[in-house]
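dude i think i finally got it to work??
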Amino acid sequence: MSLWEKVGFGRTGLEVSRLALGSSYGVGGADLERAFERGLNFFFWGLRRRGHFAEGVRSIAQKRRDEMVIAIQTYSRWAFPIEHSVDRALRGLGVDYVDLLTLSWWSDLPPQRIVDAALALQASGKARHIMISCHHRPSFERMIRDRSYGAIMVRYSAAHPGAEAEVFPHLGTERPGVLVFTATRWSTLLDPKLTPPGERTPTATDCYRFVLSNPSVDVSLAGPKDGAQLDAAMAALDRGPMDADEIAWMKRVGVAVRRDAKSGSPVDFLDKLADTFSGRKRRAAASAARVTR
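look at this
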């Protein structure tokens, strides 16, 4: 199967390209239009809602909106700002609805008030489906079972392979769509200083090919800063899935990068804080349950 062929995005029913282009790093304008002409139809207006990216989406949507899949996200921990954030996105992109509203960076199931706000936007037609992003892999089992979520967004790379054991086995048959992010592990997989002796340093193309070779992955999020990086991402679709030897090589590099990138990333640090807070919440809930029994 060619990686250029679109796939069904789990129980959303959406037909999506295997790469989603993110807005945070600089690509936009005419580069989005040529990517769309080549077959990329998934656009993620994410944390950084850059105007240049919006220009490209608006230009495509004016003529071919029904062929596009547009995702946005909210990090709100309060229900009332979510609709305002969605309305701003709709105005900025010049569209009447988004295909996916992402509830982002939850370490556990969101409070019902957050879910209800998202479901209300779904009922109104402003968002067709709800996706959830989580950095605490054990929480995905319950998120996958919750049919409020048409798709999940999970970190996965050769240096972050934990989803293979903790997330993907729970998908089942009527599964949500699976969008993975940080395929390059914030470019540390591309750093020759972290590559073990005797191994070739991966390129961004290699990183996207690796994650898309896993049959549980529908889409990889890519964040190119310019046309050259966009071309490198699309080259992954040209080259297709990796063979067993290539996957083994990527995993060897991934182990070394994970071990040797001692400084970590800001996201790693924030994940630890979120996991600590989430763990405290779960322990408190368990304690309260014991008291009431």
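Residues 7-262 form a domain with the TIM Barrel fold (CATH 3.20.20.100).
im so relieved honestly
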